[in-house]
Protein 1
Amino acid sequence: MAGGGEFEAKITPIVILSCMMAATGGLMFGYDIGVSGGVTSMPAFLKEFFPEVYRKTVEEEELDSNYCKYDNEKLQLFTSCLYLAGLIATFFASHITRRQGRRATMLISGFIFIAGVAFNAAAQNLAMLIIGRVLLGSGVGFANQAVPVFLSEIAPSQIRGALNILFQLNITLGILFSNLVNYATNKIKGGWGWRLSLGLGGLPALLLTLGAFMVVDTPNSLIERGHLEEGKVVLRKIRGIDNIEPEFLELLHASRVAKEVKHPFRNILKRKNRPQLVICIALQIFQQFTGINAIMFYAPVLFNTLGFKNDASLYSAVIIGAVNVVSTVVSIYSVDRLGRRILLLEAGVQMFLSQLVIAVIIGMKVKDHSEDLSKGYAVLVVVLVCIFVSAFAWSWGPLSWLIPSEIFPLETRSAGQSIAVCVNLLCTFVIAQAFLSMLCFFKFGIFLFFSGCVLLMSTFVLFLLPETKNVPLKR
């Protein structure tokens, strides 16, 4: 590992403020995760853009199975195309992050996202909706590339985990905000509430854009781009001490090594970088195959399928969003105390058991043409989903982003983050595009499928994942 022990540093206001502003990229991402599932359960939205689904759900057209109400490829494409666009955009974002800096990438992200919001809120047909979602996905790709790297590089190592998890905390806040907005706009008479839901996504994008104008770029990025004196000034400012020479010299050395690497994506495939690459890819795949985004994207749709009424399904999504936020705060307080591995392993047990019990309840009580779940069982399902979400929120949610940003050296960090974002968005696209069809095919077995994935990923952590708590960042 490059570098020795922990460098001297104070926890300065400029670091806290910069991290809070940058982490609003997560708020933007989270809002979009939550808002899509809410609007796709609104009758007015379905009637205008997805009339086939509207007939199945509202007019109660006869179905082979209640599990297949929302099984529609166009509806799934509305949700999933964002993540495919983000996957493609992250390759461009990696180049800009390295050549122009983390701050410039965040600015571009905000502008693109605002354009996507405008298209979606004003949509007159499905084509406008899809164009808007593609722009939103491009903004997400740029934000997910730059923000975790920015947070890891600017934070002192003793609180790096907590500050990095601000990104995930803002994702959960964005999901909760979108759930509250969906619940309120669904009550607006006239059937235009979905436009307000989609349009309010511009607020977090505006916050990220304004924040990117105000923050300084990281010393790592400035030195990497040849701005040595400016990098030294910024390093002294964010560390709050005069003795920044040891850290500066290491950054300078790392930058020289990084400049010798002309092809970072080719370099990352070298033998010395393979363990980090395998860990990075595995964490992103496992994060998505916990089933969390199936719940977050489609929570109202899922609850409607299980027999909840429209208002009740949106209200349940709000409860889940609140649990998600609170549990992410738990992670901020515990990640640098307990470590990464213990949180991942404990959460694996909790998620496995909760999904197993959900599968049993739904398998026994929700048949193809059954009546609604009784109130008692409906409440129990919501509680179990909250238990699952809480475990994810203090473990696999934030740590799947934190750990990759910690393990790569400077010369491959942007490439490594790009691969992490790419794999994550690819798996997210697959889940978003396939979930409603999987629900139709597997029925209650969908939860058994995801619980099996949780068991597999917990085994990976137990035997193959090293602890990165308090390990100085590879410069």
Protein 2
Amino acid sequence: MKLRQSFLSALTLVLASTFVNAQDAAALTGPGLPSRKPAVTTDGLERLISRSKLLAHAEQFFSFAQLSNGNRAFGSKGHEATIQYIKRLLDRTGYYDVEFQTFTYPYAESRSQLTVDGKDLLTQAFTYSPGGDVTAPIAIVSNVGCEASDYPTLTGKIALIKRGDCDFGLKVAYAGGAGASGAIIYTNVDTAPSGGTLGQPSRPEGPYVPSAFIHKADGEAFISRINAGEEVVASIHATAISEDRSTSNVIATTKQGDRDNIIVAGAHSDSVPAGPGLNDDGSGSMGILEVALNLAKFKVKNAVRFIWWSAEEFGLVGSEYYVEHLSDEERQKIALYLNFDMIASPNAGFFVFDGDGNATDIPGPAGSEVIETLYRGYFDSHNIRTGSAVFGGSSDYQPFVDVGIPSGGLMTGAGGLKTAEGAEWWGGEAGVAYDRCYHQLCDNLENLFVDAWERNSKAIAYSIATYAQGIEGIPRTPRPPTRTLRVSKLSYEQRLHLTCDHDDDAA
């Protein structure tokens, strides 16, 4: 089943609907008391999900990114505008108790630009890489650059190093120790570089130098030219920021419904510093926002809580903070958690989290298999095959899993490559990343696969309507009062690695 439609084609359906204003929000709910609203049903909520409204939100999110150098990284002007927009629309419904949960966390940003022969190449940066401007000939490092002996004298040169076998930071430090004025690391597989870290602020092997991370094909092209006797001159422009930033989760809980059985749905509202994050995770944030706005037309039996996490891209910081600061009593009241991180990938697969662990050998807490079954049944009813996503720890479900809360969710894939079987199931291109713009500047409006996004948003509506009315099969026996939160034990740099690649497992 092929589900491809470009953003621009879909955008023609929006026309002037580029902003959800106060009149739109008022029309969602009306002034009537909750008792006058109909009980929520799966069909009733699902049919209200509109691609035109999703696209209107997308235009807003993209405009917010332009406030802060093209991104919505936590604590930036773009991110602040995002969360204010979400809260404003929810407040206008009058249906939710809406609050900001504010915290402070260290922010680090490195940017790198590489130019060769007057052409800018696709480049990612490493955290802890110093800023600076370097122009020099490229020199090839032996092997994969994990030994000091691999580095010739590099004074006045930029070291070219293959990825693999040891830390990025060690390679760049060795280059600096050999006198290099800059370092370029190229990937060892045919996928685009998605960013990285030097691991620590400094190393004894040598000083860090301005650096860039590039695609394997570009690195190998440089090697061919140099081996043919050509001098290849490169320019690196690198910048670095390190500071503490204040930021907030947005939490919206229905005023009605049983608060001893709370249904929680979440998506992260921040992007990486490299780009606007319209798929990662604007798609999930906008999907649950549209469901929340439409849920306000209905009565619910169980309370529903929507949360937009901040600082996910720095290691699940917002979700970890939220769960860590819940009392044991409040944790017990959460019946289940649903996570939506990247649901509009341009080369999409349809992945459901493997609650029973049958496909990935990593089950979620008891009850997660019930959520998995619900989503697989939904997609089966629309003749869409589903793959299995693993609870691998790289998104905001992890803190909930750590404390034994049944969890599930949907995703369409990140930097992993679509298999031939996946292309047969869903269309698209085998051997190509689900999202070729993952963690890049091009994760913009054109990167959204609107058909997949709309279908997943309707699946979210289906699940919210189901569980808002009943939680049959979800265990409600008391959970152990204390569980270790895995992420909180990790270092700052280890937390950053959690989001270096989302979980992709095409069944």
Protein 3
Amino acid sequence: MLEIGHAPGNALFGKYEIGRLLGCGAFAKVYHARNLRTGLSVAVKVINKKKLPSLTMMSNVKREISIMSRLNHPYIVKLYEVLATKTKIYVVMEFVKGGELFAKVAKGRFTEDLSRKYFQQLISAVGYCHSRGIFHRDLKPENLLLDDNGNLKVSDFGLSAVTDQIRADGMLHTLCGTPAYVAPEILSKKGYDGAKVDVWSCGVILFVMNAGYLPFNDPNLMAMYRKIYSGEFRCPKWMSSDMKRFISRLLDTNPVTRISLDEILKDPWFRKGYKEPKFHEEQPKDDAQASSSKLNAFDLISFSSGLNLSGLLDESHDYGERFILRESPEKLVEKVEQLGKGERMKVKKKKQWGVELEGKEGISGVAIEVYQLTDELVVVETKRTGSDAQWYKELWNNKLRPALVGN
């Protein structure tokens, strides 16, 4: 039975009328629902925290929520809000009526023009993600949905990587993806470029749409991996020479020479009938390149009650505060350091504008992070790091808050 929020009747949190089951997995179910106020159809992913098999899976759930919160693109499934109870997380998303692209292509291969249309929409969405430092890493027809108008929507960001997961060598190192769509460099386990991996998967998807079958397939998994690694595939006879040439550039086993997204956008086969979608951009285009001390759109959203993820995945909250001040980050950090030294606490600097204060024998502590909101405003976040809650409350009420806020 679906656990609902504390509200009268059958409505989830008094907001959503839950309908039929759309799909289910090991730890999550997706339901059709209706917003009682607006009448809008939505999809609600219900995640059972107790069934999450590992901390890694919890991390994937949190990552998917945080990534989807950053994205606003016509060919990407929209996240509306996140709700939670003690045992469940409810992810309220755009309802995409047309189902999976996989189901449609399973009924018969697409024409070259239709394949190109969906591929253009896919590249538009993928390029948007890459420009924000997000790499999907599990692109496949099952993760591509179709709306009422026959337009494509990218979903399922559970395996996505963001730029802060890139190691010092500039590469990602997590082994992930679906076997038939995985790039050869992932199999080598030597690190890979997330953008080039997504381009490879897009190439496999394009091949499947027009051919009606996979370019690399074998009942023996290792044999299939060998074909992927060596780039061993054949295009069907009905595929045009221009499309064959284009696919060979997408499925180049060498990521260095593989076609890039910028080159895709200039390719004559791709450009036929291409129109870049126009939509309202809700965050600055250079957001992904912003300094780590600056807040991006998701950070701002997460400070609001609707999408504060701080307590969604943990049974208990660390005691903490978050507030906005008109003060320089340097001045605030200096105040915290002076307070810590005056109280004879161990002072440890973190990142650019972060400080940790450690009290008696390590059982009491507090971490302070300062984020630049605008040129004049900052967000200050304090969090208890030790087990002594009473110590934290007394420090916060009597010394830390007056030192920072001035009252």
